[in-house]
């Protein structure tokens, strides 16, 4: 357990340049506080001390603003940056090396027993305000853009943006990848719907210009038409 905790703490340095020391991370990072208390509450939950586990979870929520159900399964090197407003449901699972920002929800959409919450793979980045709903699977190395609403499975290496979320890239990065994309976003990750709208707008402008040329008589075809009409 101690080894896992130290891995959680050390992983912060890879993803937050503001971190200066382990002491600072342990004292000042609410995401780390919430994760440490979750490790304890989950340990109790698995040993059938469910009420005590829920009580510790409630204290964690009060102190950090991060709500993690003690039944949720979280892998090593999980990092919640800023953290306020994060909600992680009971049957959610989170792989190794996952990064999550404030306002994220891993929520359930069913009242039936069983898996109701998202299943997150390894090295996934989930941007602020993203909502992942239902028993969906998010593949390894995927990125969920800020404020995206994801209700379907996400392929490994995909980047999801929009409401509902759409894929803008499906490329699995190399095994060794030192680049970290804060908030799961890049300047080149354009929304595919936005690209389509821009293309249609450009096409409309071209058609409007062509019609204007025809109406003004500047186009050769317009001149031929006038001759045909005897004008």
Short description:
With 231 residues, the chain is an alpha/beta fold. The chain is built from 6 helices and 15 strands.
What structural class should be given to the helix and strand makeup? alpha/beta
| Number of β-strand runs | 15
| Whole-angstrom Rg | 25 Å
Distance between the termini: 92 Å
Note the beta-strand portion.
Answer: 15-25%
Note poorly predicted spans: 174-178
Mean pLDDT: 84
Q: Helix count?
A: 6
How are strands sequenced across the largest beta sheet?
3-6-9-12-14-15
Helix content: 25-40%
Biggest sheet descriptor: 6 strands, mixed
What is the helix/strand order?
A: HHHHEEEEEEEEEEEEEEEHH
Overall body shape:
elongated
Task: Give an overview in words.
It is a single chain. By secondary structure, the protein is α/β, with parallel strands linked by helices. The protein has helices spanning 2-15, 22-28, 30-46, 50-64, 192-216, 220-228, and strands spanning 67-68, 73-74, 79-81, 87-88, 93-94, 99-101, 105-107, 119-120, 125-126, 131-133, 137-138, 143-144, 149-150, 158-161, 166-170. The protein is 38% helix and 17% strand. The strands form 3 sheets. The protein has a 6-stranded mixed sheet with strand order 3-6-9-12-14-15. A 5-stranded parallel sheet has the order 1-4-7-10-13. A 4-stranded parallel sheet has the order 2-5-8-11, with no helix packed on it. A hairpin with a 4-residue loop joins strand 14 and strand 15.
């Amino acid at each position: 357990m101690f080894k896992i905790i130290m891995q959680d703490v050390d992983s912060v340095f890879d993803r937050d340049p503001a971190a200066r020391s382990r002491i600072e991370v342990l004292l000042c990072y609410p995401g780390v506080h919430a994760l440490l208390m979750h490790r304890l509450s989950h340990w109790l939950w698995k040993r059938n001390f469910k009420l005590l586990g829920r009580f510790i979870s409630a204290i964690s929520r009060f102190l950090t603003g991060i709500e993690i159900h003690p039944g949720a399964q979280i892998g090593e090197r999980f990092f919640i940056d800023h953290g306020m407003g994060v909600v992680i449901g009971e049957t959610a699972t989170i792989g190794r090396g996952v990064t999550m920002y404030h306002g994220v929800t891993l929520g359930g959409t069913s009242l039936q027993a069983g898996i109701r919450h998202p299943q997150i793979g390894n090295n996934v980045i989930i941007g602020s305000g993203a909502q992942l709903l239902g028993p969906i699977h998010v593949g390894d190395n995927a990125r969920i853009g800020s404020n995206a609403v994801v209700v379907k499975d996400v392929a490994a290496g995909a980047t999801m943006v929009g409401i509902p979320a759409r894929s803008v890239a499906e490329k699995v990065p190399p095994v060794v990848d030192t680049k970290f994309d804060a908030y799961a976003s890049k300047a080149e990750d354009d929304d595919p719907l936005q690209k389509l709208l821009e293309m249609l707008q450009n096409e409309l402008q071209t058609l409007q210009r062509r019609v204007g040329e025809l109406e003004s008589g500047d186009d050769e075809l317009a001149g031929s038409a006038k001759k045909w009409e005897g004008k």
